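--- STAGE predict ---
source: upstream dedup step, 1 unique chain passed
mode: sequence only
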Amino acid sequence: MNRPMNPMNIQTQRNLLREYPDKEGIERERERMGKGGKSHGDSEVEQNMAAWLTGINTLKIQPFELPALGPYDVRIRMKAVGICGSDVHYLKTLRCADFIVKEPMVIGHECAGIIEEVGSDVKSLVPGDRVALEPGISCWRCDRCKDGSYNLCPEMKFFATPPIHGSLANQVVHPADLCFKLPDNVTLEEGAMCEPLSVGIHACRRANVGPETTALIMGAGPIGLVTLLSARAFGAPRVVIVDVDDYRLSVAKQLGADEIVKVSTNMQDIPEEVVQIHKAMGRGVDVTFDCAGFNKTMSTALSATRAGGKVCLIGMGHGEMTPLITHRFGFSQKEVEEAFETSARGGDAIK
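--- STAGE serialize ---
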């Protein structure tokens, strides 16, 4: 994101002009914001609060002590924090993939807010700036970081990923280099959606989506929808999205999907649904994005994508995927015959 050099963004200036029409009033407000949002007459120090995950299905709003502000850090007042699927996993099971919550943790990582204080050596941001936060802090020293793949850093410290606390709080302290100024036409809520949107953008980059790439998206949840938006922005001429839910499909249609296909959760319906998908696409499927992570969606993706096409897996799927091997038989006369009969019959048989 670009980082304009103006000392305060235009919207903030407009707000200040409405509240403080005189020049001295604006300067007083700038000074107040620079001291963390408290006026000189305030003697009471605000206690920072956060949403702590303390057990399965248990969230508590409790005090959250911030670390000291380093020279290259900023303190941000959170204004919008989204709820991600990983947050729900932690709430329901205290784990997400191999990450396990072993002690109380502040949750949340999709976030945007307003700068309240900057470290002594921060030059790119000033109090009052509206920013979206990159939730991952990489080491910048390992081979992955040096080759530009900082998202794969083995030392990554990511908001709300044990043992790192998240951002669902009144305020957080974060490196200034990982806070990105929002344009004036982007709201703070939209700024909080930059993190999930980046997933769709990264997927389209990896799949080399362009003006000649048709795209099929499995799943019309949040990640499926941002992948739809990204594919459109990358110039995909035709995008088809499938889901089991009518409402989500209607949202996908409103957001620009050319066609929607409602599917079931039954494996035996895959052949018929692939026919529907091909009809909806009107030509071959160049790239399929599996944004659901189920055995059936993976099987459908592999079946629907043209020869030489690409299948891109996005997000967290099941720990064990078995999209192809659906039946097993021993090496005997009877079982070999049964295996061929099962394969010829089709239905829920893939391999």
